[in-house]
Fold Nucleoside diphosphate kinase.
Amino acid sequence: MSVAFRRESDEEHKEPKFEIPLPSGPNLVTARGLAAIEAKVAALEAAIAAEPAEEPREVLQRERRYWNTRRTTAQLAPPPEEGVAGIGSRVRIRLAGKLRTIDIVGHDEADPAADRLAFSAPLAHALLGAEAGESVAFNGRADAIELVEVTAIPG
């Protein structure tokens, strides 16, 4: 085989590793969300210190850079007014005739499967600023969502 067809190393053929993309907009968090970010950074630092292999350590370091940025840019959301839906609220709604309870949280705390929606999610965004007893527009319908109850997320 000709020398022209040999590779010196596999390094030059690896895909580049880009940083983990950050959500756009402000990084508003609840107190619980900020604590979760702190715990994530601590867990990653421990994992990095315990990882002997270079490649897995680089993956962990990349993830730590993401979470350090999220920690640095985190802004504790002001508590919502009593009875008004905001970041840190648990909102009981009636949507399409069905009752549903949603927690409105920051991006990093969101878990849609557990009804923990980021404040920028369309459903949560529609609820922001509304009070119990109000109906709000959603998905092109004027009175699509009825707010049944608004409380603070239990700590």
